[in-house]
Amino acid sequence: MVTDARKRANNKWDKNNKERLLYLNKRSTAKNFILKLATEEDLKSIEKYVIERKKLLKSC
Fold first, then answer.
1. Would you place residue 3 in the very low, low, confident or very high pLDDT band (cuts 50, 70, 90)?
2. Structural domain of residue 33, as residue ranges?
3. Please, are residues 43 and 51 in contact by the beta-carbon 8 Å criterion?
4. Are 39 and 32 in contact (CB under 8 A)?
5. How many structural domains is the chain composed of?
6. Cβ proximity of 22 and 30 under 8 Å
7. In 10 A of CB 26, how many CB atoms?
8. Torsion angle of alpha carbons 4, 27, 43, 41, nearest 10°?
């Protein structure tokens, strides 16, 4: 059981870190999709996206 103080602290963190929370949620969703739902074709596409993203990050 979560105490009221912990709930308030969690809500405060969520409110003050909206971008980080969104990033973490999207990362979790992507990981879950890859590990539990992705087909072989999906994984091939994802590998291409990862290569593209790495190239983009290297050029910055």
1. very high
2. 4-59
3. no
4. no
5. 1
6. no
7. 10
8. 70
